[in-house]
């Protein structure tokens, strides 16, 4: 109960504005995460489960891209609460859970309550708060100490239920949708398990090698079961990966070294004043490393009080060794030596000097952000700080008797919290808004204008597809927008043969090739912060409106009046058109129903021909004419085309990805096996362990 209250209290200290209904802005929150969550919430409220997002660019598979986290249990809140409230509640719940799971693992390792809570404070509030603009950080990082807790508990109790919970925790981490921290967690377990069984054992450990192999094998089976439980997410993501910009990790469009931590930036641990200044990103200006980086991805700070505590503990350990002692309680335990080595190894990985080799290894080359491996360093630092605190308290007999131990704790912890709080505000891109931006959308004048325009579009032209900057944010206005921002996206959005020729015409006049691309891509309107030169742009001005409620805050960070200009693009295909508009006779094409996973259209022509729907052609989309399946034809390297015979016909496109069905089948089968094993095989499993262990003990 005390740990829960402390965990809750820390969220009040660090995130009070979120409790009062405020919102976050900055980083990827509005360019990436909230557009996805708003789209999910919109459909959950209708009772739908969207498999395709038809607003970002020309569409992408929602489950495959993964960071929407469609099947993540906590995301059910998006169907119950408004978007901002759900986003805040989910973040806050994970901060509390991360603290409690770190506390539980530290307790399992032998630390007392106070020392274990200190470990949770250092890990959770040293590494995560500056990364509040990266939703995946706390959603994924919560489960690392939880998984270690279950591994440690199973190795001590040898109960089936611990293996079941380990599978559930690792599966939940993968269902959250960003797999890098899940991959790091799995690596940690693969290193921790043999070290724990063969090196970090106590002197009275009588287990023989055969039993240790059985224990290791049981944990490995649990890891495999986690992949099975998460297959409903993993199978679609694997399908997208094969058709994404990350299929070739050596390609120019994807750089796994992005987000590394330069060697020089390690000094932030001991001299933060050199680097941490609100609103300043000094690390991105470092000419060091294989790619770009930024202060959030490269952040690692444990607090100066923590470093003092670690120094005292290390000094005590050295003195104990020099005096000939076999062991200094806590710090000399091989467990703490292991975490010191693992934390150091993770830190050594962060500068990405190894990428010429590791980028070709499975998993390592798939993810950007080598600086994220510092999460292991942060966890190690928290555990070692807890051990140092416990050792120091155990040695300070006079302090305890005088009652000064509590006083020192009451001084140390507030100073550490203040230190971490200060850094969390200076070392982030996040800005707190009293009124969340996502709650202002319905007050937007541009949104009202777009709704009116969409209702007036000619058959076949709609729905609206904007060409607009600020990445995915314009999709919050419930229209499609290009260009896109996707961490894992279809390769067509990154291929020079299918994307708009650069540089993008924001703040400059377009080239003829760029205008031709806009027309081919079915863009219907252009939204601009400045008036466009209509002699260079084949556009018709629809309206110019100030939008202080939404767009002005999003683009400029203030609420001053700024007119946004909406233009209609002339000569565009729109969403649906005949490919050869010069065919003989009259041709008509009209979209009659446009949903995320289904599009219906009526077309007619005296001579027939090819119809193009300017949405992304992707595996899983099936096309039918008058109810009968027909082959799909790819147009311009990315769009959905179909050859239509003469006459009047109904065309339907439906998204039925095989990967979803396969993943669902594997997940259900794995769940049945796990539950059956828990209900039927648990007693036999645990009895078998008792017999095996007692036999080995008697044999010894």
How would you characterize this protein structure?
The protein is an alpha+beta fold and 700 residues long. It has 22 helices and 18 strands. It has helices spanning 2-19, 29-45, 62-65, 83-108, 113-127, 135-141, 143-157, 160-175, 180-198, 209-229, 231-242, 304-322, 334-349, 355-358, 374-395, 397-401, 404-426, 445-456, 512-520, 551-556, 658-680, 682-699; strands spanning 23-25, 52-53, 60-61, 431-433, 465-467, 480-482, 525-528, 539-546, 563-569, 576-578, 587-595, 598-605, 609-616, 621-625, 628-630, 633-635, 639-644, 647-655. The strands form 5 sheets. Strands 6-5-7-9-8 form a 5-stranded mixed β-sheet, with helices on one face. Strands 11-12-18-14-15 form a 5-stranded antiparallel β-sheet, with no helix packed on it. It has a 4-stranded antiparallel β-sheet with strand order 10-13-17-16, with no helix packed on it. β2 (52-53) and β3 form a beta hairpin. The longest helix has 26 residues, at 83-108. The relative contact order is 0.12.
Secondary structure elements and pairings:
Layout: H1 2-19, E1 23-25, H2 29-45, E2 52-53, E3 60-61, H3 62-65, H4 83-108, H5 113-127, H6 135-141, H7 143-157, H8 160-175, H9 180-198, H10 209-229, H11 231-242, H12 304-322, H13 334-349, H14 355-358, H15 374-395, H16 397-401, H17 404-426, E4 431-433, H18 445-456, E5 465-467, E6 480-482, H19 512-520, E7 525-528, E8 539-546, H20 551-556, E9 563-569, E10 576-578, E11 587-595, E12 598-605, E13 609-616, E14 621-625, E15 628-630, E16 633-635, E17 639-644, E18 647-655, H21 658-680, H22 682-699
Parallel strand pairs: 5-6, 5-7
Antiparallel strand pairs: 1-4, 2-3, 7-9, 8-9, 10-13, 11-12, 12-18, 13-17, 14-15, 14-18, 16-17
Helix pairs in contact: 1-4, 4-5, 4-6, 4-7, 5-15, 5-17, 7-8, 7-9, 8-10, 9-10, 10-21, 11-21, 12-15, 13-15
């Amino acid at each position: 109960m005390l740990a829960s209250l402390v965990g809750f209290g820390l969220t009040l200290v660090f995130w009070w504005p979120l409790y009062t209904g405020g919102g976050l802005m900055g980083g990827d929150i509005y360019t990436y995460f909230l557009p996805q969550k708003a789209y999910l919430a919109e459909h959950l409220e209708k009772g739908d489960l969207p498999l395709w997002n038809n607003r970002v660019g020309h569409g992408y598979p929602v489950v495959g891209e993964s960071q929407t986290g469609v099947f993540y249990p906590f995301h059910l809140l998006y169907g119950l609460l408004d978007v901002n409230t759900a986003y805040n509640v989910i973040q806050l719940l994970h901060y509390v859970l991360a603290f409690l799971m770190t506390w539980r693992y530290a307790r399992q390792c032998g630390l007392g309550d106070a020392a274990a809570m200190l470990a949770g404070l250092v890990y959770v509030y040293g590494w995560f708060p500056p990364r509040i603009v990266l939703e995946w950080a706390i959603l994924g990082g919560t489960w690392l100490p939880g998984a270690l807790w279950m591994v440690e508990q199973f190795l001590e109790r040898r109960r089936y239920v611990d293996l079941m919970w380990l599978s559930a925790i690792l599966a939940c981490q993968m269902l959250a949708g960003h797999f890098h921290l899940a991959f790091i967690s799995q690596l940690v377990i693969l290193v921790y398990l043999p070290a724990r069984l063969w090196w970090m054992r106590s002197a009275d450990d009588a287990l023989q090698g055969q039993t240790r192999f059985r224990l290791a094998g049981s944990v490995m089976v649990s890891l495999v079961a986690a992949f099975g439980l998460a297959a409903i997410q993993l199978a679609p993501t694997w399908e997208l990966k094969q058709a994404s910009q990350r299929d070739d990790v050596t390609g120019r469009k994807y750089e796994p070294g992005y987000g590394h931590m330069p060697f020089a930036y390690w000094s932030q641990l001991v001299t933060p004043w050199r680097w941490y200044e609100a609103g300043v990103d000094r690390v991105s200006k470092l000419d060091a490393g294989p790619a770009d980086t930024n202060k959030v991805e490269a952040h690692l700070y444990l607090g100066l009080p923590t470093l003092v505590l670690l120094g005292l503990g290390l000094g005590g350990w050295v003195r104990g060794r020099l005096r000939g002692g076999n062991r200094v309680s806590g710090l000399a335990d091989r467990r703490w030596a292991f975490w010191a080595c693992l934390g150091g190894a993770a830190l050594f990985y962060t500068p990405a000097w190894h990428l010429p080799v590791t980028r070709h290894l499975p998993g390592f080359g798939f993810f950007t952000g080598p600086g994220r491996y510092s999460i292991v360093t942060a966890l190690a630092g928290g555990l070692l700080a807890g051990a140092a605190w416990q050792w120091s308290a155990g040695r300070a007999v006079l302090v305890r008797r005088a009652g000064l131990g509590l006083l020192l704790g009451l001084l140390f912890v507030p100073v550490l919290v203040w230190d971490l709080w200060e850094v969390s505000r200076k070392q982030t891109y996040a800005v707190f808004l009293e009124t969340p931006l996502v709650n202002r959308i319905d007050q937007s004048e541009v949104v009202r204008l777009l709704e009116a325009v969409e209702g007036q579009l000619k058959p076949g032209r709609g729905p609206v597809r904007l060409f607009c900057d600020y990445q995915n944010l314009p999709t919050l206005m419930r229209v499609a927008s290009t260009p896109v921002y996707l961490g894992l996206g279809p390769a067509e959005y990154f291929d020079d043969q299918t994307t708009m020729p650069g540089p993008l015409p924001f703040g400059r006049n377009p080239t003829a090739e760029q205008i031709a691309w806009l027309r081919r891509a079915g863009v219907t309107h252009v939204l601009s912060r400045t008036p466009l030169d209509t002699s260079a742009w084949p556009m018709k001005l629809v309206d110019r409106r100030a939008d202080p409620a939404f767009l002005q805050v999003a683009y400029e960070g203030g609420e001053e009046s700024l007119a946004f200009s909406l233009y209609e693009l002339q000569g565009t295909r729109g969403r649906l058109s005949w490919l050869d508009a010069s065919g003989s006779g009259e041709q008509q094409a009209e979209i009659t129903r446009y949903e995320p996973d289904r599009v219906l259209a009526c077309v007619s022509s005296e001579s027939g021909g090819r119809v193009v729907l300017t949405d992304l052609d992707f595996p899983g989309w099936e096309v039918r004419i008058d109810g009968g399946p027909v082959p799909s034809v790819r147009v311009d390297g990315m769009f959905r085309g179909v050859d239509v015979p003469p006459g009047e016909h109904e065309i339907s496109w439906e998204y039925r990805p095989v990967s979803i069905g396969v993943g669902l089948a594997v997940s259900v089968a794995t769940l049945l096996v796990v539950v059956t094993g828990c209900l039927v095989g648990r007693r036999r499993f645990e009895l078998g362990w008792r017999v095996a262990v007692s036999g080995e003990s008697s044999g010894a």
